[in-house]
Write a structure and sequence with these properties.
This protein has 176 residues and is mainly α. It is 75% helix and 0% strand. The chain has nine helices and no strands. α7 runs antiparallel to α8. The longest helix has 30 residues.
Length: 176
């Protein structure tokens, strides 16, 4: 990695790629502090380049691996990304993992469902949305709060996916 970094000297894009590779290697070695350092994430804060997908994903993985909580900012940045890029299955899945680590099972189930929907696995997505609905039935949200909004989104997406699964089944039946 050091030799690669020296070879990339003078080329900003190549240096960035070496930086990302360094972070990825550190994560594989279970060294989140080194990964955060490679990304330029001082004190675990989002690196300046966190608006780029590779940096965002590696930073989120490093923060998860570091443990210790404080994942709210990670969840917010991932959520902002999927709002702008709703078909990004990998970021949805990372958001689901972060939400699960934060103790937010309903949100994690929904994000997992969105990840599966982005992969066009509608039945698996529907299963996750129904799991989120089951969690909500066990612990109903307060009217007017964020949980109530999340419940409404889950209900809407469940209906959309049920319709999509039925349409696909009908299409498959016609093809036979």
């Amino acid at each position: 990695l050091a030799r690669l970094g020296a070879a990339a000297a003078g080329d900003a894009e190549a240096q960035r790629t070496v930086q990302l590779l360094g972070a990825e290697i550190a994560l594989l070695e279970r060294n989140p502090a080194q990964a955060l350092q490679a990304l330029g994430a001082e004190g675990g804060r989002a690196p300046a380049a966190a608006e780029r997908r590779p940096d965002l994903l590696l930073w989120a993985q490093a923060r998860l691996q570091a443990g210790g909580g404080g994942l709210g900012d990670v969840a917010q940045r991932l959520q902002a990304w999927v709002v702008a890029h709703p078909r990004d299955a990998l970021v949805w899945q990372q958001l689901s993992t972060v939400q699960g680590a934060m103790g937010l099972p309903v949100q994690a189930a929904r994000s997992g469902g969105e990840a599966r929907a982005a992969q066009l696995d509608y039945q698996a997505a529907l299963d996750r949305f129904k799991a989120a609905q089951d969690l909500l039935r066990k612990n109903p949200p307060a009217r007017g709060g964020n949980d109530y909004i999340e419940a409404s989104i889950i209900d809407l997406r469940t209906r959309e996916l049920e319709t999509r699964v039925r349409e696909l089944a009908r299409e498959q039946a016609l093809e036979r």
